[in-house]
Structure formats: structure tokens, C-alpha cells
Design brief:
2 domains, DNA polymerase, domain 1, Ubiquitin-like (UB roll), five-stranded mixed β-sheet, globular, alpha+beta, binds FE2/S2 (inorganic) cluster, 7 helices
Amino acid sequence: MTVKLTVNGEERQVEVKDGTRRLLDVIREDLGLTGAKEGCGEGECGACSVLLNGQLVNSCLVPIAQADGSRVLTPEGLAQTPEGQVLAEAFTECHGAQCGFCTPGMMMASAALLYRNSQPNEQEIREGLSGNICRCTGYDMIIDAVLMAAQKGRGLWG
Ligand code: FES
Ligand code: FES
């Protein structure tokens, strides 16, 4: 089947034999966008997070047929936006990325949160990132980074 997607603002078409193939694999293997990572492969870690029609999803759980006709924002696309740049700077300044494996997914989850709540408190950030696992930072530095991105990005998040 032919699957049509708008990926990071660009129209893309992908031929797939099997509509149950995972969105994560199509993004990484067919489209060469390797920002979204595979951690658990079971919807538990958030490393594979992308926005699908503006909603945060674990792309390891989305069959490609279900994404047909959708808008997908990957970590690469987020990085090109002013919001993504504010987030990246905040993660760097607050040491919110250590090994970096969880970071693209953390940034996608942070962006999803900030787009719906541009000035979240600490508890709301913890809830917004509750689907994303980090083995390195103990989370506090990530929380600080999101608070900083909210502050520095005032007016950007809508
Ligand atoms: S790889 Fe998708 S949630 Fe862990
Ligand atoms: S920075 Fe290593 S898993 Fe989060």
C-alpha cells in the first residue's frame, strides 16, 4: 500500500507491504530520520516519541496504516523550530541531557506539554513527561530544562 504522510512539513509517500509496520521503523528506515529512538519497543519508555497530528504518541506502537494521511513531527522537525531551539538550549544549560538517548523523546514530550500549557508547574511537567524514561539524570535537571524553556520561550508556545 502507499502511505501518505506530511513529515516535518514535507509531503512524503512510502510504499509498504505490510500496513502493520511500525511508524517508528518507517520514519527511521524508509525516511532516514533517526532522531526518534527505539528503547523498549513496547510503549513504555517514550524514546520513540513523535507528534502525530499534534498528539504525542509512541511511534513504536502505531501501525503505519493508522498514520496514513497524518502530520508527523519528529525530533528533526522540532529542532528546526524556534520552540525546538529554545528547548535544546535549555536542556544544554540545565544539563538535562547526559547519555542523550532519551533526549529526543523528552523534547517531543516537553514540546507537546508546552504547546497545551505554556507555563506548567513542576508537577504538571512531571506528569507531562511521565511516559518518558531517563536512566541518567534523575529527572530533576530535565524538569529544570522544561521550566527554563517555558520561561525563555514565553510567547512562542502559543
Ligand atoms: S521504544 Fe517506543 S515507547 Fe519505548
Ligand atoms: S540522558 Fe541518558 S537516558 Fe536520559
